[in-house]
Design a protein that fits this description.
The protein contains 20 helices and no strands. It is mostly helical. It has one domain.
Length: about 425
């Protein structure tokens, strides 16, 4: 089978399997194995055992279950709810009121959780009933939560970033640090948008007597532990005191301590947190195996090499190539979830971006932003589905309409990253200088 035939076969098989509702991991493995058999018979299939083992027997992936446990403990033991309630008291004076609290809460919880869906779902469960009762505009509520939830995979620690690094063989610590400034800047842009909208139309976030709680020491105590946890985890990585895996282990321990302080460290909570961590970790690793099998099929058939040579022969400028990649991710983001999108495309894109001279750390952050956009674009925007399920019967159109301005903000933010790459690269350079 020629590389052209393999490409046509792979695309057709993947589309059919995904349209039929097949799990992305099964679809990737089935497509890769079928293509390998048609290309070389049984011989290339003999290497699949080694490929599967080597793809997950990786130190790069070891922080994944630890960060998942940390996020699950914070989610199950009531830490997130207390954090939001305390934060809302301190941010009530900002234009937009509790909408601003949504962005900050999502940003901080994202850094502890590493999952967009978990971030949007957790904060949404706490805030949507309260904001609807206070008369806040529904699209603004849903949009702020959907956009804030996407920060879960940009502000480190991020499971998606770990998977990216395992594929392109990049430093997890470096990519984590690279995501800090873009993540905080994007959160700031979201807050500016909310502030401007609410200043122009105060009825979007009406003042309410319930928002006038006292700024007490107890409300501060609800906020500081989670801030300290994230600061310590990321600070230890930046200072070179700990690897990403060691920082994740420390984070798990500290999350247990915080949960015990809040009296939420019960056996049912611990059990549910670890069951959730096992399920999520197995799902992630299974998809990684599927991506590696698919990648092996592309390499064995010559698709990767031929496609790279073809793209380079077009002599596209790096900016045009980046626009083409952006368009590809925007289309795929409407059809499949973010992690699957990355694992499906990176085996093809990796040799192309390497040959084109893209910085892998910068490109990793750009890919994460593109995946974030996919999380809030219909019809398969996972954050939108989660929030619609929590919306108390509101139309799905309200959720989608509320998220649209944030999609535009993120696209403009991508252009900013292109023209000012130091937004991504400055902090990793400082970390390297301090090493």
């Amino acid at each position: 089978m020629t590389w052209v035939a393999f490409s046509i076969f792979s695309i057709t098989t993947l589309v059919v399997l995904l349209a039929a509702g097949t799990w992305i991991a099964i679809a990737l493995i089935t497509t890769g194995m079928s293509g390998l058999y048609l290309t070389g018979g049984l011989r290339p299939l003999m290497a699949l055992g080694s490929i599967s083992w080597n793809s997950i027997n990786s130190f790069t992936l070891s922080p994944v279950p630890l960060f998942i446990v940390m996020g699950a403990i914070i989610l199950r033991c009531g830490i997130a709810e207390r954090f939001y309630q305390g934060l809302a008291i301190w941010l009530r004076a900002l234009p937009g009121g509790l909408l601003q609290s949504n962005i900050i809460a999502c940003s901080v919880f994202a850094a502890a959780c590493g999952s967009s869906v978990a971030t949007a779902g957790t904060i949404g469960t706490v805030t949507i009933p309260q904001l609807q009762r206070r008369g806040y505009d529904n699209p603004m509520v849903f949009g702020s939560l959907a956009a804030g939830g996407t920060l879960g995979i940009l502000i480190p620690p991020s499971i998606v970033m770990i998977i990216y690094c395992s594929i392109v063989d990049e430093s997890v610590a470096k990519l984590f640090i690279a995501g800090v400034v873009p993540g905080l800047l994007l959160a700031f842009l979201f807050m500016v948008y909310i502030g401007v909208r609410c200043i122009l139309n105060p009825s979007l976030a009406p003042a309410n007597a319930e928002d006038q709680g006292k700024r007490t020491l107890r409300s501060l105590f609800d906020i500081l532990p989670l801030f300290c946890l994230i600061s310590f985890v990321m600070g230890s990585i930046y200072a070179g005191w700990a690897t990403a895996t060691e920082a994740a282990a420390i984070g798990v321990f500290v999350s247990f301590v915080i949960a015990a302080m809040y009296r939420g460290l019960t056996w049912p909570n611990i059990k549910l947190a670890h069951i959730e961590a096992v399920r999520t970790t197995c799902m992630v690793l299974f998809i990684v195996i599927g991506a590696q099998v698919f990648s092996y099929g592309l390499a064995y058939s010559g698709v990767s090499r031929a496609l790279t040579e073809y793209v380079l022969s077009l002599e596209l400028s790096s900016f045009v190539l980046f626009l083409a990649i952006t368009l590809l991710y925007l289309v795929l983001g409407c059809l499949i979830d973010g992690s699957s999108m990355m694992l499906l495309t990176l085996p093809v894109l990796y040799p192309i971006i390497t040959a084109a001279g893209f910085d892998l750390v910068w490109f990793g952050v750009a890919v994460v932003v593109l995946i974030e956009i996919g999380m809030i674009t219909p019809p398969i925007g996972l954050n939108l589905f989660v929030l619609h399920g929590l919306s108390n019967g509101r139309p799905f159109a309200e959720v989608a309409r509320g998220s649209l301005p944030y999609v535009i903000i993120m696209l403009l933010f991508l252009l900013l990253l292109w023209f000012v790459p130091e937004i991504v690269l400055w902090l990793p350079k400082q970390m390297a200088a301090n090493a």
